[in-house]
Amino acid sequence: MNRRLIISLLMLVSAVSSLVAAPYFEGSMRITFRDSVRGRDIPVTIIYPADGASGVSKPLVGTSTNTIPTFKVVVMGHGYQMPVTAYRSFATNICSNFQNTIVILPESGAELFPNHGDFAADMVSCVRYLQRENLRVGSIWYGHVSPTTIVAGHSMGGGAAFLAARTIEQDADLVLASVIALAPAETNPSSKQAARSVTAPTLVLAGGRDCVTPLAGTVQPIYDSVSSTCKDLALIPGGSHCQFADDNAACSLGEFTCRATIARPTQFERTFAYVNMMLRGSDSVSLPIMDTQIQTSLTALTERDIQVTAREGCIGDTIVFTTTTTNPYLQWQPGNKDGAQYTLIIRDTITRVSLVNTQCFGQTIANITIRGWLKPTIDIVGPLEICPDGSVVAQARATNATRIVWSTGEEADSIRIRSAGSYTATAIGRGGCQQSASITVTQLVVPPIPVDMQGDTVFCNGLGSVQLLIRPDAQRYERVEWSTGTIGPTLRITEPGEYTLFARVIPRDPNDCLAFSDTVHLTIRSIDAPVPKLTFQRDTLWSTPGESYLWSVDGIEIQGWRERYLVPTTTGMYRVRVGYDTRGACTNQSESFDVRLTSVRERRRSDVYRVEVVVGAVRVTGLAPLEGVRLVSLLGTPVASGFADQNGQLDLPVNVPTGIYVVAPDSRLAKLVLLQR
Fold first, then answer.
1. Is 242 helix (H, G, I), strand (E, B) or coil?
2. Would you tell me how many other CB atoms lie within 10 Å of the CB of residue 187?
3. Could you give the CA distance from residue 244 to residue 240 in angstroms, rounded to a whole number?
4. Inter-residue contact 232 to 201 (CB < 8 Å)
């Protein structure tokens, strides 16, 4: 009950949003194209997502950024004596929620005695027309129409949708994704007969107060005839025949005696909820939304249809799933993997694996939960060197472990090692998961003790530290004496300067090995790393000076550019990280600098520029003012560089052997130029 309530509220919000404030600009156009095969002119209205303000014949969405998507086609058949304007809300809902979708509405079939077969053929012609436009250079649809088609319709158009769907499914060049029929009518030829040939996923909606195409006498027989194994019939209580469309007198007159008991916006909300879930591939399309009554043919598989090598394992292990079903439309989640077999690498303590029937609105048909156990972590600490006849203690530190077993056979957190060799500790945790770590202990011939150094020898703004550390066996050695007079295994240096350091290790037993550390020579420098400042001069961003520069825009590094200046090529938030020494140890990052380029300035970055050879120079024209240009050999050897003047021109002086060289302006494709002595 709670899930239904939540779904109902979500669908209500979605439907109201689509009716009140669509998140796109809506374009429309009316054209008439000719079906040359049938010798018939077909007027149509096309609704599509557009760039800029809504209106007639606006550019396609994405035109200004050259990212126009591929559009799926929804062809919508109108009801008897109903204008296509009655389906504007239907088309707007689809385009607002699915911006890679266009809706085409044939205006034919408006005669007093329409030929249903011709009208269905017109719907198919609409699909073929857009497929032809997809291939015609110069068309606004060129290269942007998907072969995927959804056939929809209301009343007479709903019946004709099944006639059109039968034809499309028999056409090898077209792809029928689904059928949406709103209160479909019986047609001549029979839509009920045509439905027997339809195998695509099908959604049929009916109104509980519909006396034009009543459920029992008209809609139910058509739905029952559909051969698809994936079909739903949603009955909206209180809904009428005409309220599947916008208000129009022609339809309302025909159902004068059977008025709806719910408002038109309410019927729209329920209708669009199911239409949108179907187009989105939701696994909730077969659930009752807002008291709608549902009939469905969907059947879910069970866990018995999936074989799995294990129900639990260690994180990082592999588990293989296998299904024996022959359905070719199955997909495994997570990962969107096809096939009868699926391999999962366990990455979480709980993982839900689902098998999805992609042909059937994304209906999840089986779920299996896999338990993952954390592998233990382990490391070994302790001296790695021993004097002759000496010993060291190896300590294993582990997490998520119930016990630790050593390669010596001992089961303990630590062991004493008396001879050189390799030693392994294995941590064993829940579920049998285990992890090992190894150390190698060597015998000292000359017993210097290595010094570990932590920290950087370059201090930034005077801040930093270098820590020297030696690790003698506490049971063997009494104390550590550093050359500075500091007692203890750790020596911390916090001031820049020149240092020569070593430590002497005093054993507890005077007869034991006396150890000295390696001598460490340190030069610690301090470098200022101020916050760089960005300034914008004409079209160029300049940073305050440093040793190295790493530019980024909107958090993404700009590859291949390491200069102090940058000519922005796109609108965004620019930052630079400046290094203040050659190793880049001291860096600091600027504040974000908001650069807003007009479309003209952005387009100029890709304008064609010209390269010509003049006396003693290579002349480059058509650049942006202050745009940088480099002239290099084919081996990458720099020859000359410079910046364009205010007129976008630059002369690069050359005195080089005959050969081919590369002209490389900032943010443009490079060109080759032949230079002759």
1. helix
2. 26
3. 7
4. no
Contacts of 7 (CB under 8 A, 6+ apart): 284, 287, 289
- Please say whether the beta carbons of 247 and 255 come within 8 A: no
CB 209: neighbour CB atoms within 10 A?
A: 19
Give the distance, in angstroms, between the CA of residue 526 and the centroid of all CA atoms in the same chain. 44
CA pair distance 111, 102, nearest whole angstrom: 26
Can you tell me which residue has the tokens 């809609």? 219
Copy the structure tokens of residue 244: 């599947």
Determine contact, residues 301/355, Cβ cutoff 8 Å. yes
Mean pLDDT of the chain: 86
Token readout for 57 is: 């014949």
Residue 192 near residue 158, CB atoms below 8 Å: no
For 254-286, give the secondary structure using H, E and C.
HCCCCCCCCCHHHHHHHHHHHHHHHHHCCCCCC
- Is the model's pLDDT at 465 over the cut of 80? yes
| Residue 45: per-residue pLDDT | 97
Cα–Cα distances (Å) from 497 to 437, 492, 587, 598, in that order, read 39, 13, 21, 53
388, 445 Cβ separation under 8 angstroms: no
Average pLDDT over residues 664-669: 80
pLDDT at position 10 is 32
pLDDT of the residue at 545: 92
Output the pTM of the full model: 0.52
Q: Pick from 79, 214, 213: which is nearest to 154 by CA? A: 79
Rounded mean pLDDT, 271-291: 85
280 vs 242, residue with greater confidence: 242
